[in-house]
Fold these 3 entries.
Entry 1:
Amino acid sequence: MKWFNEYKASLKLVEVEELLDLVFYRPLAFLFVKAVYKTNLTPNHITTIALIVGMIGGAFYFLNTHIAISIGAVLLIIYDVLDCSDGMIARLKKNGTFFGRILDGIADYFVTVTVYMGIGFGFASNSENPLYFWILLGAAGASNIVHAITLDYYRNKFLDYAFNRDSTLGENLEEFETELIKLKKDGGKYFQRLIIWVYLKYSALQVKASSNDSQKTRINYNKEDYLKKNKRILHLWTYLGPTTELTLIIIASFFNRLDLFMWTMIVVANLYALTLFIIQTNINKNTKLDEI
């Protein structure tokens, strides 16, 4: 029971967790966390190790052999376990850092880009019809970007209401902008400056994509009604998250059918996202507003 309570304490809100994380990756990550808990490994150390493992896994896709991409897939599984571990140990030890919050999020995108590049230059470029598969890969990648931005937006919006936060992006962007200015004045720490800069650019993209619900025009829904009506739909949105996408790549790799991954992202995932968007729009229309 003690381990179960610790496992629950290491999670974010269950409503915002991806299903595959809850039933597979995070339980494995928790075992890793318990194994290293008394060591000097920090969340940032684990994030860095995860990033290296994930990018090495992505590099194997450049080799374009079944054995190579299967090895890459195994490394991606390890990456996802480690990617879950850093946040879990940070919550248990309460030793998360300012920089670590951003590094953890950026790591996903570095690894994803490496994997997509590996698939492109490995699988697509060496296929019988390179242009066709590069177009498919580009469409799958674009779909992934849209899904990630959409999920981040609805997840952070849900957390805003759950924790009475002001920012629709889930963080105070002014805090990060101030930190970036400070780092520039101090000089050095180029990697940290790059990570924060990338994060701010990504956040600006989210703001632009969701301009109808920005800070200035934000709709003030009734908190209780909003959380009640969005709890289930948010869980469904998480099926479009990075863990699901990465797992699709892993499964396709073991079967040596990366083309099926692309078509699943383009057709199945986009139809699913469109269906959820229609349902979400209807939920928003029927959610009570706070009385002013």
Entry 2:
Amino acid sequence: MTRPTLSVIILNWNGRPYLEACLVSLEAQTLAPDRIILVDNGSSDGSVAFVRERFPLVSIRENGGNLGFAAGNNTALRDEASGIVVLLNPDVVLSPDALSTMVAAMTADATIGVIGCKLWYPGGELIQHAGGHITHPQALPRHDGIGERDEGQYEVARDVEYVIGAAAALRVSMLDQIGLMDEGFFLYFEDVDLCTRAHQAGYRVVYLPQATAIHVESATAVRGSFAYLQRFHAGRWRYLLKHFPAEEMAGPTLAAEADWLDRLAGPERRAVSLAYLTTMRHLPAIWAAREKEGGGPVSPEVQTAVASGLASLHARATHFSAEQPALLAAAAELRERPFTSSVPVLGPLLARLRAAWNNVASRWYLNHLMIQQSEFNRLAAREIERYEIELHEQMVLLEEQIVQTTELQRQIESLEAGLAQLQHDAAGSSIAHEHNPTAQ
């Protein structure tokens, strides 16, 4: 059986510290890929220059800005003519047989559409990913084996709900059938969505433990940051609304989300609040994507219930706890420390001594005020710093949306130019036919 051609796509955004180890591991593969493409999402850390100098055989595609995981990979996938393509994060180091193992499994079984590796945390002792599943009713992802010491408990290949896109092999003919990644996902859940669509088309999604790799995980996206949480929860809700049963998302999902939201701390609540707002603004596009490649159309009543529920969740998320402001207000109020003495006032001499002592003690009293003021300043500084970080990350999110909008505009202009050319060609053909009616 002829081996299908193999391409590896590495989507990079400021991953310079990890690229050398990643690309060296590709050079060490027992099955060399036919082509390696570095897709750069507007890095500013010298990644592209480094790869050009150190790995000249790597093809480079520069997107000019951070398009996100789905749209960034799609710029290369659109032109992919190989039989199999492996998506690889720059912070992944493949074991030498990883590519050959995935290609062999996919070649032997035409029903396999997606294969995922066993991923370890750095050190290679703790499992990070051995397949995954989505929980109900909130679409929270769960990685099988996460954090467990690898003692061979996940050594059997099996069909799974999804594998993550950090190191995954895709059958290109499957992509021709189901379409590329959904660019409505910026980062997170686009791989889960692709696996779900593969299942819907009758393809298998397989966890293959003999293909292994080390994954730093979130090397270029700070886990727990405002931007990370906003992207994660916006992706979660897009996936949920695309694929969950209508009766579930309009009922149990909204109820569980409200209960869960009340237990979140302030920073994550703010990120989730923005994710709800993002989801509400994109509802028409999400319903269209669901009808085209998800769970099918939903009734106007369900759409109304979901929109109303999201609005209620957004209002609930923006009603923040008064605990931190109360702490600041308490620290800002300078409280008098009353002077006390156990010495009774027995005469003028003792009264003067007491007055002198009070004067000395006043220095201690001022010290007490200074301590209070310092504590208030520290609390205020921490709050200001946190809000400044969140504001910066919100600006980053806005800039990413501007880049995405610019890319969409470029695609629209390209399509319009193509349409104009087709119309011009059709008009020319019609004129030629009029002048020569017998022409075939």
Entry 3:
Amino acid sequence: MSLLSSFWNEFLTKFEASKEKNSVLYSVLKQTHLVELTEEKIIVGCDNQGVKKFLDPKLREIEEKIYSNFKKHLTLEFIIAPIQKKKIAPPLLTFEPPVEDLFIRSGLNKKYSFENFAVSSTNQVAYAAAQAVVNNPGTAYNPLFLYGGVGVGKTHLAQAVAKKILENEKNKKIYFCPGDNFTNELIESIREKATARFRRKYRFLDLLIIDDIQFIAGKVHVQEEFFHTFNSIVSAGGQIILTSDRPPTAIKNLEDRLRSRFSGGLTVDIQSPDFELRTAILLIKAKEKNIAIDIEAAKIIAERTGDSRALEGVLLSLYAKILGKKDVVDLESVEEFFSQKDENQAKRLSSSDIIKAVCTYYNVRPSHLKSRERTDSIALPRQVAMYLIRKQLGLKLLETAEILKRKDHTTVIHAEEKISNLIMRDQNFKKDLDNIVQTLETST
């Protein structure tokens, strides 16, 4: 018996002799073995993730028991390290965890896959790149950097890659991590003096996906850690996939060396879904939820709903209205739904309501919007007001121009084009606009 196993066995023997010998903790500890022992630290191996998950919250309690038995202050760490046993004969039965369990352990959402990812001209390059990464992870495009606005399918595509690779090779070490989680985990590991454990988790992966990587910008220590994580994975032949709301060149306060790494693979812009893609997305969601819908009805919904994430909400609202009356969401029910929505909105809202909401948000006076002043602080709120009056009330170009005291309708056309482009390019601006719309909906 080695010195390592002797120490751990002695501890378990003392534990067994105590009044807690019948505890669940003791029975789980019996399934572990000592991996490393120094003057300051003790590393204990667990046969599987379940044992480690049970023991991790009890670290401090076990450290105290070790001290009470040996009078040594040791830092305890549990790792997954099954004992390698000699095989006498090939086993008749082998256990493989279901692939769904592997998805969960890897931080993946079961609803994202290639099978339910709709492809059109706005995302076909990103889709092709994702397929190439599945076929040649670590070599095709590394990193694969996907960027675009909210709801364009970045997360869906990144997770679809991870799922397909796991389905092909279940032993691959894969992890999907939101950008803010990486930051939070690093801070927590520093606080608990467990950075070694943090590095073991991230630096030896076959595939690491960081969603919304822009969240690490401006955080010096986090960027430093991710730089080394990135290099460690790529140098070992692993794959990196990053998503963001903007390209690497537009992420403010990002270190140049990281910007260079991020731009070193393939950077793909995923555009907002066009009409055809929104229709396809809606039909996929209807099929997933077992809702029958006519193709013409789906086209009307897609035409009236620009935000792909809002499609599901509209579909469910329509289904709730026809439930018990019809078996299919048809053209008549869709037209009636939007007609009632338009009538209700028109009754509640007026152009003065919109102007007031815009002025309150940007801290300007209504008289300023109707003046000849053209400074940016006035011009942008004025253009936002024109855009919202057109979208929310459906007024004609000339009517909108007259409300804001403009000479002709070309000013309104220019405003609509500018605001539409800003919505697609600038997610912060889009959030501003969403906040104004939300204010209008709650105040009427």
